[in-house]
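Treating backbone geometry as a discrete language has practical consequences that deserve illustration. No coordinates are needed to read the tokens, only the vocabulary itself. For completeness, the protein is quoted in full, as a sequence line and a line of structure tokens:
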Amino acid sequence: MNIDLFMNIITSSITSGFIATQAIQFLKTKFNIVNNLIYTIIEFVVGFLFALSFTDLNIINSLWCGFVSIIGAEALYNSLKGKLGLKSLE
């Protein structure tokens, strides 16, 4: 298992999650949209495009970043911390 690649995907997903959360909050307040499917699509697209634009991940790994953004990268990282050799980035 490539731990460095996994950490790159998790880190990119956490960062893109902040951006997607702000975009979703904007849509909720400005346009009064309350559709969970739209929120899921926004999470995926922001995660995918963020990873593709700002990291050296290829398209397949950027798709994984989008998927991990949907399921919650920070929660996934916290649940796996200490396992599989994952250590805190601090």
In short: The helical segments are 3-30, 36-54, 59-71, 73-80. Residues 3-30 form the longest helix (28 residues).
